[in-house]
Write a structure and sequence with these properties.
Order of helices and strands: HHHHHH
Number of strands: 0
Strand content: under 5%
Structural class: mainly alpha
InterPro entries: TypeI_RM_Rsu_C
Protein name: Type I restriction enzyme R protein C-terminal domain-containing protein
Number of helices: 6
Distance between the termini: 23 Å
Shape: elongated
Radius of gyration: 18 Å
Pfam family, one: EcoR124_C
Domain Type I restriction enzyme R protein C-terminal: 63-148
Length: 155
């Protein structure tokens, strides 16, 4: 139900733990495949909820509490990860939160323009480390935006 390495398995395990739903991991391909909640091992372009997810939703999700619990968990993780990116990359906190919030809202991070430069630590664009720092920060924020598409919330 999304690109690899964006945290789907972590979210599904945590959601299952909060709901008290039993979990079973199945190795079905050469790569690690999790059929815990999503029940689907397809490319991100054609992913859809599998039978396990449909069954759980039909049996447990007549209440909105499951969806509310998921989004509460996702937003908590979102805030934690934003703070982690800001701290680990020594970013300007206010500018970074504005840039990330705008990126999440439009569902992509823009590499060009002054907004990305404004969040970076103070250094000259002529500094040899500037380009690599900008690229690293952009990659982290792009991955973050991909991971939290559709979650909404405050960063």
């Amino acid at each position: 139900m999304g690109k690899a390495i964006i945290g789907k398995s972590v979210w599904s395990r945590e959601l299952g733990r909060h709901l008290g739903v039993p979990r079973c991991g199945i190795e079905g391909t050469a790569e690690q495949a999790s059929f815990v909640v999503n029940g689907s091992q397809r490319g991100s372009g054609s992913a859809f909820p599998g039978r396990p997810l449909q069954t759980i939703v039909q049996s447990l999700c007549a209440k909105a509490s499951l969806i509310d619990a998921f989004f509460a968990f996702a937003r908590e993780e979102q805030r934690r990860e934003v703070n982690e990116i800001i701290t680990s990359e020594d970013l300007n906190p206010e500018a970074a939160k504005r840039y990330i919030a705008a990126s999440v809202k439009r569902e992509f991070a823009a590499e060009n323009g002054a907004d990305l430069n404004a969040i970076l630590p103070k250094m000259s664009p002529l500094n040899p480390q500037f380009r690599s720092k900008k690229a690293t920060v952009f990659e982290k924020i792009s991955a973050f935006v991909d991971k939290f598409k559709g979650v909404g919330g405050e960063v």
